[in-house]
Design goal:
The chain is mainly alpha-helical. The chain has helices at residues 11-19, 24-40, 44-68, 70-150, 154-174, 181-241, 253-258, 277-288, 292-310, 325-345, 352-373, 380-399, 405-436, 447-456, 480-509, 517-544, 557-585, 603-617, 625-648, 657-675, 680-683, 688-697, 708-714, 722-729, 745-755; strands spanning 442-444, 474-476. The chain contains 25 helices and two strands. Strands 1-2 form a two-stranded antiparallel ribbon. The longest helix is centred in the first third of the chain and has 81 residues, at 70-150. The radius of gyration is 57 Å and the shape is elongated. Mean pLDDT is 76; it is low at 475-479, 546-551 and 737-759.
């Protein structure tokens, strides 16, 4: 610890102490502080003056002594002279020492200042080093993000920028004293530009992917068509082995189960692989950037433009190139499959409405282009090929969940065109036969020629052909024209019948397994149209064949098939409606021992009447009136039997009056619904058994049921076996424990009826 520097207010006393020192060491100890003080306080002159004053006082004193004591005085003078000499020498030493001390002090001060400066520099260097380290971390993160962009690792780059903001930039910017504040602010301002770079890079990759997808759409459709045709052939083989499978069409649940072992993914196979990674990455990046809506709109616009580029301005139905119908439908199929696959993989990107809108637009364009090109078609065989392409297209896209009702309707148009071409071809053939006939008797030279004539004409012998011996080498009184005319008619009939039965009819019937009543109604409408067309074609061919030359009746086997399958379609509608009724009945819950009657009809019965009303006024609206009445009749009969089965269930042990009231309310609600229908008085008969059963359960004299005459008069529709069962369950006991006693009795009944009892 440094000694405290002593300060002096008066050098007079200090000089006295210096002079009175007894030793040299003490003298120096007293003198040096005084000199330092005089030097540091710039009072050297005051010290010199005090020393001089002390010397003058001593001289005066010495002179006074010298006058009295001369010898002593001389001795003292000599001593004083010595002292003075020593003092002068000592003063010189002191001055030299003072200069030396002052020089040392200045050097020490310089060294101290240098040390202070060195420490400041070291601290600055340390601060700069830390600042550089932090800056390098920031710059390294920035460079890492750009490296990831160059490597096409866009999400990693975006994550790197996000981490950079959260860990470095934002905390640094919020700290205004941070050394990297300016750098952080500069980089923070560049973040949006980097994010835009990532967005543009990922969109570039996506556009490349979309271009490749557009280029491969037709090939994808070709692969899908091939797969559908392969499935169809496998299904035909299974039908040949088991005729029962003929009831199940392609894309039905049964066919799909049988085909499970034949795994084939049209999007990932040996011929074609569609990788959705660029799409998912672009979607993920834009979601992270908060630009999902913008990306969705841009993607939808791009797909619409690609759809327009996919569809040509015209097609040729007789070629097999890029302008052919097959190429068009393959391209549409590939495009639609990509859309459906995208919707399933990323529903937030493509909604069902977006996909169906594009599908409807492409179907409309395909139908329009085909209709324009049909004007150049004069060969019925070409129409058969066109129909085959459309049928393959319909079955393929139906398997992907698309609505094909418009395409089904267009098959009717193709058939009308086919019938028109058949009529035209027959007319041309007939004119050709007439114009080339020589009107000479026809000669028959072989048994085969005779059989052909006999099969198509009224001419016949009384004896069997095998017993005839004189029919050869004969001339008959009709010309060659007579024979060729009905032969052409029969050939036309055979081809038309084959097309209708093997192509059109089978294509419609294959879709009768649909679970949607609307599709069944559409198929039923098409079947009616085709049946009418077949009848018209039969009349056309009958008029074309001379009544006198006809060898037999002209009928199309397809006519009867269409008529039979109409009944199948109607039956299928009944099944679907009744299936829905069964589903609703499974939700019925009655508390047969309720302590209070319910305030309103059950939810299931209200839903049931609403369903019947809605389906009749919407989906089934276009059906003929008689069919709709039959559907109502069958549905009400089915519902009545299901409702009556609820209290008859073995799980229902007892029924009190409140339980009867609950059932009565539901029956009354259903009755009111039927009364409001057109021809409700006819449909009401389906509910007679239900109503009479309610009357029996609410009767004060239930014994009347056991009197045959009274029962036939009042309860004639109540089953003689069911009545006693219900009356045995009837009790007047009303539970006070609320609805918990048999809350799930009806639910248990439904389970028993569906899965069987344990007995």
């Amino acid at each position: 610890m440094p000694r405290k520097v002593q300060s002096y207010d008066d050098y007079g006393s200090a000089v006295q102490q210096i002079i009175l020192s007894t030793t040299d060491a003490e003298f120096l100890d007293q003198l040096i502080p005084v000199l330092k003080d005089a030097t540091s306080t710039s009072r050297s002159s005051a010290l010199t003056q005090n020393l001089s004053q002390y010397a003058d006082d001593r001289e005066v004193e010495i002179e006074k002594i010298g006058l009295t004591k001369h010898e002593e005085f001389l001795g003292s003078v000599n001593q004083l002279q010595n002292v003075r000499e020593r003092t002068v020498a000592l003063t010189a030493d002191i001055l030299e020492l003072n200069q030396s001390i002052q020089a040392s002090t200045e050097k020490l001060a310089e060294q101290k200042q240098a040390l202070v400066n060195t420490r400041a520099v070291r601290e600055n260097i340390s601060d700069v080093s830390e600042a550089l380290k932090e800056s390098l971390k920031i710059l390294h993160s920035v460079n890492n993000a750009h490296d990831l962009i160059r490597k096409k690792k866009y999400y990693g780059a975006l994550k790197s920028l996000d981490d950079l903001q959260n860990e470095f930039l934002i905390p640094t910017i919020q700290n205004q004293y941070a050394t990297q504040h300016r750098l952080a602010d500069l980089i923070q301002k560049s973040i949006p530009a980097s994010q835009k770079t990532i967005s543009e890079a990922v969109m570039t990759d996506l556009n490349t992917w979309l271009y490749r997808i557009r280029e491969t759409s037709q090939f994808l459709g070709e692969v899908a068509f091939y797969h559908t045709e392969t499935r169809r052939l496998r299904q035909q083989e299974r039908v040949q082995q088991n005729e029962f499978l003929d009831h199940f069409s392609l894309n039905s649940a049964i066919e799909l189960v049988f085909d499970e072992s034949e795994e084939f993914d049209v999007l990932d196979n040996d011929e074609l692989q569609v990788d959705f990674t660029p799409l998912f990455e672009a979607l993920h990046i834009h979601e992270a950037l908060g630009q999902s809506d913008k990306f969705r709109a841009e993607y939808a616009a791009t797909r619409r433009r690609q759809k327009e580029l996919l569809l040509p301005s015209s097609i040729c139905l007789t070629t097999d190139d890029e302008q052919s119908l097959s190429s068009l439908l393959e391209g549409i199929a590939g495009f639609a499959i990509i859309e459906k696959a995208t919707m399933r993989r990323a529903p937030q990107l493509r909604t069902a409405i977006d996909v169906e809108e594009l599908w409807d637009s492409m179907c409309s364009t395909a139908i329009s282009l085909t209709s324009k090109a049909l004007g150049d078609i004069h060969n019925a065989e070409v129409l058969v090929q066109i129909k085959g392409v459309f049928a393959l297209f319909i079955q393929t896209m139906e398997g992907w969940g698309y609505s094909v009702s418009r395409l089904d309707d267009y098959l009717v148009t193709l058939f009308d065109k086919y019938a028109e071409l058949l009529k035209r071809r027959f007319s041309e053939d007939f004119q050709e036969i007439v114009s080339t006939d020589d009107y000479m008797p026809m000669a028959i030279n072989t048994r085969e020629e005779y059989e052909k004539v006999a099969n198509v004409s009224w001419f016949a012998q009384d004896q069997p052909i095998d017993e005839l011996t004189n029919f050869l080498n004969q001339f008959y009184y009709f010309s060659n024209d007579y024979f060729q005319h009905p032969t052409k008619i029969d050939d036309t009939l055979r081809k038309a019948d084959e097309l209708l039965t093997e192509k059109v009819c089978k294509s419609l019937v294959e879709r009768l397994s649909s679970q949607y009543p609307g599709q069944i109604v559409q198929i039923l409408t098409n079947l009616e149209h085709f049946e009418t067309a077949c009848q018209e074609l039969e009349q056309l061919l009958i008029r074309a064949r001379s009544s006198g030359s006809a060898g037999g009746p002209l009928t199309l086997a397809a006519t009867e098939q269409f008529r039979e399958h109409k009944k199948t379609a109607e039956k299928r509608i009944f099944e679907l409606v009744n299936s829905k009724i069964d589903d609703l009945m499974e939700t019925a819950e009655y508390d047969w021992m309720a302590h209070i009657p319910p305030p309103e009809p059950s939810n299931y019965i209200q839903t049931l009447t609403t369903y019947l009303s809605n389906i009749m006024s919407t989906t089934l609206l276009g059906l003929p009136r008689e069919i709709k009445e039959l559907i109502y009749f069958d549905a009400l009969s089915h519902a009545a039997s299901k409702i009556l089965a609820l209290p008859l269930s073995p799980d229902v042990k007892k029924i009190n009056p409140n339980g009867v009231v609950a059932l009565a309310q539901d029956v009354q609600h259903l009755t009111n619904f039927v009364d409001d229908l057109e021809n409700g008085f006819m449909l009401r008969s389906n509910l007679d058994e239900l109503e009479q059963t309610i009357q029996l359960l609410q009767s004060e004299n239930t014994d009347e049921f056991f009197d045959a005459s009274t029962r036939n008069k009042k309860y004639g529709r109540v089953d003689a076996m069911n009545g006693p069962i219900l009356l045995e369950k009837l009790t007047q006991q009303i539970s006070s424990t609320g609805p918990t006693s048999q809350r799930f009795a009806n639910f248990s009944s439904n389970l028993s009826s569906r899965f069987g009892s344990n007995k």
